[in-house]
Amino acid sequence: MTFDELMALVSEDDVQTLQFPESWTQGRTAFGGLSCAFALQSMLLHCHDERTLRSFSAQFIGPIAPNEPFTLAFNLLREGKNSSQYAATITQHDQVCLTVQGLFAKDRRSIVEVPYAHVVDKPAANPQQCLPYVKGVMPNFFQYVDLNLVEGGMPYSGTQCTDLSGWMRFKEQSHNYNWTHLIALIDAWPPSQLQVFPTPAPASSMSWHVECLHLPEINAHDWVGVDISTTAAHNGYAYEDATLYSESGAVIAQSKQTVALFA
């Protein structure tokens, strides 16, 4: 199933039962971007006016097994005149696996106006230099994404660099980008610290926050760029920042993750 087909499974029901195929796993759990996208899609379907996503926060609590039912529950936390606060939770086998909160708000008039930043002087994406999908070596969901590494090293290459830059897109995307595509793609990259590991070892995202600055019109087959930098890493945890931008260089979102390192 493609990403768009999986998102089409989500309904406006406050509580629903879903599942996903093993081809969308990352190790023994759902690809984190996919599980967050399920939760975000539920929120988007409950937002019926011009309120747009402003921020998104997730806590990865436990694994979500493929080919088994899980429960996606939506909760309206608060609905104000200009903003709404939503929450969504994924549970499986009576265990909480993921909690997500989203802030949706209308545009407001303000005397403060700071233009969106632009990223400049980035090389164009090269479809011939995408990270390969090797069954049994790469995460299963890699078969659905193109990740074109521009700067930084491959995972487990033993480099000293902990930053990376690249371009990304879904291979079989049928709809123009919305926030579910972008949230999922930000998380598609392996933690940038994996390039320091000399041999394969796991790492796991624990918490994640995304500031959603604006969503330009992006066609289904366009590339989206990302710059990821490690702000600190110590005692087995790393803290990384990411900037997401369009092919024109317009910054779309900024992301922060806490990652557990096992090497």
Count of discrete structural domains: 1
The percentage helix is 10-25%
**How would you characterize the largest beta sheet?**
11 strands, antiparallel
Number of helices, where a helix is a run of at least 4 consecutive DSSP H or I residues: 3
CATH topology: Porin
Assign the CATH superfamily: Acyl-CoA thioesterase, double hotdog domain
By CATH reckoning, the class would read Mainly Beta
What letter string, H or E per element, gives the SSE order?
HEEEHEEEEEEHEEEE
What is the percentage of strand-forming residues? 35-45%
Mean pLDDT: 94
Which residues sit in consecutive blocks of at least 5 with pLDDT less than 50? none
Provide the fold topology.
Blueprint: H1 3-7, E1 15-18, E2 25-26, E3 29-30, H2 32-46, E4 52-60, E5 70-79, E6 83-92, E7 95-105, E8 145-151, E9 164-170, H3 179-186, E10 203-212, E11 224-234, E12 237-245, E13 251-261
Antiparallel strand pairs: 1-5, 2-3, 4-7, 4-10, 5-6, 6-7, 8-9, 9-11, 10-13, 11-12, 12-13
Helix pairs in contact: 2-3
